[in-house]
């Protein structure tokens, strides 16, 4: 299957974003571009966990609702959520009402605080996994050795809903890997953004 499409603006893009202008905006402005801000990283890994078993389109349509429901993914605030918040969220029609996933991201908020204390920031921890070479070989893959290692490490630290496929989708979204097709106009832009990006330490 052809992995590229040309939109009405004449720009070649990855085909997965072809279905809707909002999808195109996400592809053009966020996906594959490096992120170092802890709250955004926590949001991304939480939403990738919610996406498990669903389409990313579903999550993107509900993203603002998720942000409102989960205190803007401020993990310091989320770690204080209690049973009453879980019940509130389970009843929130604007998000994915999966009790296990809701409880997991609240649980992970506390783990994120621990990670921040141990490593200085979430960014420093996650970016320490950045692979030196392209592990996908230009192919569409669901996971890689690095995503497997990241998943295993997170699970050892007590995180939930962070399997290797979820971790690889997170790595793509946060710009740790550049999986824009080489023929996509944003592949080179993501390369340029990464070239001037300072790795968190």
Automatic annotation (TrEMBL):
Key word Zinc present: yes
Name of the protein this chain belongs to: DNA-3-methyladenine glycosylase I
GO molecular function, one term: metal ion binding
Keywords annotated in UniProt: Metal-binding, Zinc
Residue numbers binding Zn(2+): 14, 27, 180, 184
Organism for this UniProt entry: Celeribacter ethanolicus
Any one GO biological process: base-excision repair
Keyword RNA-binding: no
């Amino acid at each position: 299957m052809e992995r590229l499409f040309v939109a009405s603006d004449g720009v070649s893009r990855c085909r997965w974003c072809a279905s809707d202008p909002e999808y195109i905006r996400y592809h053009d402005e966020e996906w594959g571009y490096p992120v170092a801000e802890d709250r955004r990283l926590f949001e991304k890994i939480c939403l990738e966990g919610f996406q498990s078993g669903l389409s990313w389109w579903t999550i993107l349509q509900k993203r603002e609702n998720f942000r409102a429901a989960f205190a803007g993914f401020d993990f310091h605030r989320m770690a204080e959520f209690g049973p009453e918040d879980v019940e509130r969220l389970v009843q929130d029609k604007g998000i994915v009402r999966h009790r296990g996933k809701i409880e997991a991201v609240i649980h992970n908020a506390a783990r994120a605080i621990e990670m921040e204390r141990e490593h200085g920031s979430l960014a420093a921890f996650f970016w320490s996994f950045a692979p030196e070479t392209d592990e996908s070989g230009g192919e569409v893959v669901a996971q890689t050795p690095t995503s497997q290692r990241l998943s295993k490490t997170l699970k050892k630290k007590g995180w939930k809903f962070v399997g290797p496929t979820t971790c690889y989708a997170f790595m793509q979204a946060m710009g740790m890997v550049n999986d824009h097709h080489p023929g996509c106009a944003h592949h080179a832009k993501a390369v340029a953004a990464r070239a001037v990006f300072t790795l968190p330490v």
